[in-house]
Specification:
globular, alpha/beta, about 180 residues, about 40% helix, 7-stranded mixed beta sheet
Length: about 180
Amino acid sequence: VSGSLYLAMDCEMVGTGPKGRNSELARCSIVSYDGDVVYDRYIKPTNEVTDYRTRWSGISWHQLVKAMPFQHARKEILKILAGKVVIGHAVHNDFKSLSYSHPAVLTRDTSRIPLLNQKAGFPEKDVASLKRLTKEFRLCSQTGKKGHSSVEDAKATMELYKVVEVEWERTLASK
């Protein structure tokens, strides 16, 4: 794994249980500070998939047939994240899908940066979608026709982080 202290992560979920109500991890992508793919795997949920959510997840059954079992993938992912600053958009959802909690001091959630909203001209308290923010900053993401690509979203999240990195880190350091 690259020596990058900063990693951006994005996960795609599928639905399990009655009417696909429960969210389970089906793909996890992690990119380095420079946008290189550090990890990208399809993951077989523990429970039977009842809704692939293909429109949003970009995932269909054939990608999960030979996918890595959740527990195995989780081990690999947590090893990569250990001690790193993890950047994500509403990243708590990604951590939750891994049954994991990352240290708050090492977590950067781009959906909760007043500074980013300010620069985009959105109300500070808004939780702007990744799509809306990337469009505002003219970054490339979510242009694919086949639902989301978690690799593209992770890259876009890292790009968003870089827009405010210097000021944001200074603010955090002064707290």
